[in-house]
Amino acid sequence: MHRHEHTVRTWIKAYIQHGIEGLKSKLPPGPPKIKGTMVENEIASLLIKTPREFGYQEEGWTVCILLDFLSKKNLHMKEDTVRRALKHTGWVYKRFAKTVPKNALSKEEKKQKVEQLVKEIQSSCADETLFVDEANFMTGPYVQRGWFKRKEKKKFPVL
Known about the structure:
Blueprint: H1 5-18, H2 35-46, H3 63-72, H4 79-88, E1 91-95, H5 107-124, E2 145-149
Antiparallel strand pairs: 1-2
Helix pairs in contact: 2-4
């Protein structure tokens, strides 16, 4: 059964003393989880909408944004409580499926645009020294992360 012998002995002892009822799982010790249940209920209604609908600048929910939103509703809790509630209700944190916006420039068009800007800057600043910084020009769309129901794929909203 791939169980430790102590565990098996405990099961046998419980069966001998209480029969099948002795083998049933018992509630964990301590008070019932109140905040976790409240968070699970809030999350169920929140995650079907985007944070933009509530005034945030993101398309996908993060734990920090969830904590901020919940604190505005006077539900102050720790990050672990929110993460446990998300996991318990079947949500996973992953990237949106990549989609290119309808008005996105092609790789070549982006390259031409950058070269054009460099030429404009060079012509307007002939007596100044220009240097290259390490700016990140991406040829694909920026892909954010968010919370999704397990085995669900969401596409990033096309702008």
